[in-house]
Amino acid sequence: MSRFLLPATLLLALAAPAAAQDAPRFLRSPGWGADSQFNPATHFLNDAYDIFQLGADRDIRFFRQPFQRDVRNVFDNLAHPFRNIRAFGTSDFVKYEIFSTGFTKESMQWVPNYSLHAMGGIVMYGAVREWYEAHGVPRPGLAAFTTVTLESLLNEINENEGLDGPNADAIADFYLFDLAGIALWHVEGVRNLFAGPLNAALWGRQPSVLLSNGELRNVGMYYALKWRIPHGRGLHAFSYFGMGSLFGLSVSHPGDWHTSVGFGFRTREGVKIDPTRGLKTVDTGVAGGIFLDKGHSLMASLVVADLDTDVVELNLYPGLWRGRRHPGLWATVSREGEVRLGLVTRWGVGIGY
User: Fold this and answer.
1) Which of 201, 59, 78, 211 is nearest to 130 (CA)?
2) Which of 331, 348, 349, 327 is nearest to 340 (CA)?
3) Radius of gyration from C-alpha coordinates of the chain
4) 100: pLDDT strictly greater than 80
5) Dihedral angle of Cα 47, 244, 170, 60, to the nearest 10 degrees
6) Distance between CA atoms of residues 206 and 328, nearest Å
7) Which one of 91, 113, 166, 344 has the minimum C-beta count within 10 Å?
8) Helix, strand or coil for residue 208?
9) pLDDT band at 221 (very low <50, low <70, confident <90, very high)
10) In this predicted structure, what is the pLDDT of residue 327?
11) What is the C-alpha separation between 140 and 19, in angstroms, rounded?
């Protein structure tokens, strides 16, 4: 599997013509909002450390995780995928990771594979590639492929959580769905669909290191879709997804501004179904959010959720106040009333207290 899929996808990334010949599709507004903070480093943090949002039962101090066992196990699974799939159970691999006719919480591990890794991967790879093209990096396809592959690898290492044995989720994510997202970007019709009718956008958070204890906070990768409702007079169907999903409506305003409101759920914590095989599901809490964007670049967000960690999350991005070049700001309030504040540079990495 690995001997074929990785080289084939890499060849696509190298052979595809630069998208810079066209208008940017996924980094439309580099002068303000979340797009202004986007770069490979902040994107790497948001994606590779996305699991740190579930910080209640894990050490989330930056670069202080016990990596040794997780690195060894993930590399063993990726180096010997077929052997580990057989040990996990081939039929169960298909049932849990590819598709299942059962729609219970315990059997829907495949859902984020399609939404986050495949669909999100289209937007993610496209945005990283466009950033490299805009900054004149030689072979932007290779640079984007390398960045996305490395952050996907670290994401799987962070999600291994001490498992020693078959990790079906890592195999499916890395070899099937992550590579599928990159490959689908190279289909022009798919790029046009996501950049056009779906108005797909990358709404990453503003990662910051707490001065008090070195924890990495306010990290996470989220995506937004806005599909115009026919005859809706500026109304769009709205979806915001990442570590949870919100659904609602978006309203257009003059100046290419949009206000979006969504309700749904946020992931509260991971729940192990079968610890010996690494089978997990998630416990969720109800959530709602309101978002303001300009040109599909997120300017401000407020999310309230029934979580065990932060129940209120506020993010304000650069350019929100017209004519002022201010840094990004964020604040969270925990269930116990603990307040955290963060100040984020225009380069997208900040400090918190």
Assistant:
1) 201
2) 331
3) 20
4) no
5) 60
6) 8
7) 91
8) strand
9) very high
10) 87
11) 10
- Token pair of 224, please? 């937004």
Per-residue tokens: 214: 């070195």
State pLDDT tens for residues 250-302. 999 998 999 999 999 998 776 666 666 767 767 788 999 999 999 999 999 99
336, exposed or middle or buried, with CB in 10 Å at 0-12, 13-18, 19+? exposed
Question: Which helix (H) or strand (E) covers residue 104, if one does?
Answer: none
Give Cβ neighbours of residue 111 (< 8 Å, ≥ 6 apart).
Answer: none
Q: What is the pTM of this model?
A: 0.88
Total domains in the chain come to: 1
Closest CA to 112 of 277, 282, 337, 263: 282
Position 129 pLDDT exceeds 90: yes
Lowest model confidence (mean pLDDT) among 17-31, 52-66, 155-169, 195-209: 52-66
pLDDT of residue 28: 86
Name the nearest CA neighbour of 267 among 34, 122, 121, 56: 56
Two structure tokens written together for 343 = 């100040």
DSSP structural state of residue 97 = I
The CA angle 318-322-325, to the nearest 5 degrees, is 40
Structural domain including 141 reads 2-352
pLDDT of residue 319: 86
Q: Is 135 exposed, middle or buried (0-12, 13-18, 19+ CB in 10 A)?
A: exposed
